[in-house]
Every structure is written in C-alpha cells, then in structure tokens.
Design goal:
Largest sheet of chain B: 7 strands, mixed
Strand content of chain B: over 45%
Oligomer: heterodimer
Distance between the termini of chain B: 35 Å
Distance between the termini of chain A: 40 Å
Number of strands of chain B: 11
Radius of gyration of chain B: 14 Å
Shape of chain A: globular
Helix content of chain B: under 10%
Largest sheet of chain A: 6 strands, mixed
Structural class of chain B: mainly beta
Shape of chain B: globular
Strand content of chain A: over 45%
C-alpha cells in the first residue's frame, strides 16, 4: 500500500513568518509530486508541482524534493492570513501510473 | 471558460436510493477521476478513467459505479450498497501527456448527505 504521510497539525505561524510543511512517501518509484491548497468547504487547488530533486520556487512558495530521503516539503514565505488552509501533498507512482496518492493534509493557520 | 463542473452542489439521499453525481470537463483531458473526502481522511480514489469506455477501480470502489461514454463526462452513481455515503465527492481531470502530465484539476465538489 503506497502511503503519503503528513503532519496533520494544526501548524500555527504569525503573519510574515515562514511556514514549513512536510511530506514523506513510501513508493521509491514515485516521479511526480504536487502540493494542493484546500480552503474549508472548497475543492483542492494546485499550487506547486516538482519532478526533480532540489528546490523549485514560485513567488512566495518553494517546493523541495529529496528522492533519496523520500521527502518533499513546501515553504511559504511572508505568510499571510489568506494562506490559512489545509495543504495536501500528492504523489504519483512510478512508470505509467497516473494515479495520485494524497496525504491527509496539514492545517495551516496564519495569525495576524 | 475552461474547467470542470460538478452538479448538484448539495445532494440529499434517502437510504436505499441510488443517486448519480455529474462531472463534466471542457479541458480536453484524457483522464478523469472520482475521489471521496471525509473529515480528517484526505482524498480517497473511487474510480478513474484514462480513455472513453474504459475505467478502473480505485481504493474504495465498493458501492459505486461509473461510466465513460464521452471524453467530457464521467458520472458517478452512489448505489444503495454503499453503506456510509455521506461525504464530499470530488471529480478531477488530467492530461496524460504533454508538458505537465498527471497534474489533476478539481471540480467544485458535491456534498452528499444521507437522510
């Protein structure tokens, strides 16, 4: 059974701080990694994807991937109250497997 | 506007009834997916389809059925065999090739409640 693990939180940070969200996965063949943001009562929205080891930056968001450690993280710089949401980590399997396995999500609260 | 639509937004079902949730996409995506989300459980895959007239069971397919007669449409039927259907149902689609395969886009969801 492929697993994706996230700390459920809640993670609470002050406005302007860096929020760090972590995710580990069990399938060594996983090739694609995604971070979704989900506001309460709404559907998930893709905010970052990463395929290669290292860092990928997009505005205030940075995704970090370490395949050897089977670890992917999301950093949110200059956190804003509007970033308060649940963040879901999702991972594909190896080969031609297009299915995503989701973690249970981490609830982030940014305090003004 | 391109996107994924789901209807209805809210659905109430009496015990013993079958209900069908609609999902339509105009993104020209080959693959479509159905997920169920319960509080604190994350997203669990019910069924997925990569091509018209073909679909595969996900992790929790029991009590559900789907069809894929058109590329744009992937309806989900929640049958009376599903013992605990109250949940938030999410439909998604993705391309299977190109620059960013596997990237799944979600519809707004249908919240199903059993009375």
């Amino acid at each position: 059974q492929k697993e994706v693990e996230q700390n459920s939180g809640p993670l609470s940070v002050p406005e302007g701080a860096i929020a760090s969200l972590n995710c580990t996965y069990s399938d060594r063949g996983s090739q694609s990694f995604f971070w979704y943001r989900q506001y309460s009562g709404k559907s998930p929205e893709l905010i970052m994807f990463i395929y290669s080891n290292g860092d990928k930056e997009d505005g205030r968001f940075t995704a970090q991937l370490n395949k050897a450690s089977q670890y992917v993280s999301l950093l949110i710089r200059d956190s804003q109250p509007s970033d308060s949401a649940t963040y879901l980590c999702a991972v594909t399997g190896g080969g031609s497997n297009y299915k995503l396995t989701f973690g249970k999500g981490t609830l982030l609260t940014v305090n003004p | 506007d391109g996107g994924i639509t789901q209807s209805p937004k809210y659905l109430f079902r009496k015990e013993g009834q079958n209900v069908t949730l609609s999902c339509e996409q105009n993104l020209n995506h080959d693959a479509m997916y159905w997920y169920r989300q319960d509080p604190g459980q994350g997203l669990r895959l019910i069924y997925y389809s990569q091509i018209v007239n073909d679909f595969q069971k996900g992790d929790i397919a029991e009590g559900y059925s789907v069809s894929r007669e058109k590329k744009e449409s992937f309806p989900l039927t929640v049958t009376s065999a599903q013992k605990n259907p109250t949940a938030f149902y999410l439909c998604a689609s993705s391309p299977l090739g190109g620059h960013r395969p596997n990237e799944q886009f979600f519809g707004p969801g249908t919240r199903l409640t059993v009375l």
